[in-house]
Write a structure and sequence with these properties.
The structure holds 2 protein chains of 2 kinds.
Chain A (H helix, E strand, L loop, with lengths): L3 E4 L2 E5 L4 E7 L6 E7 L6 E7 L4 E4 L2 E6 L4 E6 L8 E7 L9 E2 L3 E6 L1
Parallel strand pairs in A: 2-11
Antiparallel strand pairs in A: 1-3, 3-8, 4-5, 4-9, 6-7, 7-8, 9-10, 9-11
Chain B lengths: L4 E3 L2 E4 L5 E6 L6 E8 L3 E9 L2 E5 L6 E5 L5 E5 L8 E8 L8 E2 L3 E5 L1
Parallel strand pairs in B: 2-11
Antiparallel strand pairs in B: 1-3, 3-8, 4-5, 4-9, 5-6, 7-8, 9-10, 9-11
Classes of the chains: A mainly beta, B mainly beta.
Chain lengths: 113, 113
């Protein structure tokens, strides 16, 4: 089955700098890769997702890149702000096939003032 | 549109007891997935239901079970509770299974004493 590795587990970034979180997956059939943000005490919320027919997707300060050959995908947050502090989860799924979404273990992002 | 709701929000049980958690998806959503979230293991997939049928199941013992009703509401049951079952149990709904955007509920915090 699918296995998703996420790094780093903790990341501290100066406010205004960029943050990058990386994930690798094992199942080459995976074709859907969502990212979730979970603030302290709140539910995970989808912030961006990418499908395997796309190499990069941007939404304001957030971007995700996908390298299917290397089986890794990354979340990039530019011009970080205090409200970006949260735990971020990546996930992978085979999409249309009968498979479940597997999450990485999360990255705790601290934005330093 | 109302979001995903889960009841109860907090629950304290003792070892050996059983517990039933409830999830009401967003109106019109027919797919409901359940996740266990713990500090050490992150978000782990429990099972997914669509049209009252279990489509997928994660690597959890048979003490964890679930069902979905005709109105798409879902319940999960844990029998013979163990200390290690203490966790936040999240459900997520989507219109269709797997790759549709999942919307998470607030979770049920289960503490087993």
């Amino acid at each position: 089955g699918e296995n998703v590795e996420q790094h780093p587990s903790t990341l501290s970034v100066q406010e205004g700098d960029s943050a990058v979180i990386k994930c690798t997956y094992s199942d080459s059939a995976s074709n859907y890769f969502p990212w979730y943000k979970q603030e302290l005490g709140k539910r995970p919320q989808l912030i961006i997702d990418i499908r395997s027919n796309v190499g990069e997707k941007k939404d304001q300060r957030i971007a995700v890149t996908l390298n299917k050959t290397a089986k890794h995908f990354s979340l990039h947050i530019t011009e970080t702000q205090p409200e970006d502090s949260a735990v971020y989860f990546c996930a992978a799924s085979e999409g249309d096939r009968d498979d479940k979404i597997i999450f990485g273990k999360g990255t705790r992002l601290h934005i330093l003032p | 549109k109302a979001g995903v709701t889960q009841t109860p929000r907090y629950l304290i049980k003792t070892r050996g007891q059983q517990v039933t958690l409830s999830c009401s998806p967003i109106s019109g959503h027919r797919s409901v997935s359940w996740y266990q979230q713990t500090p050490g293991q992150g978000l782990q997939f429990l099972f997914e239901y669509f049209s009252e049928t279990q489509r997928n199941k994660g690597n959890f013992p048979g003490r964890f079970s679930g069902r979905q009703f005709s109105n798409s509401r879902s319940e999960m049951n844990v029998s013979t509770l163990e200390l290690g079952d203490s966790a936040l149990y999240l459900c997520a709904s989507s219109p269709h299974p797997s790759t549709d955007t999942q919307y998470f509920g607030p979770g049920t915090r289960l503490t087993v004493l």
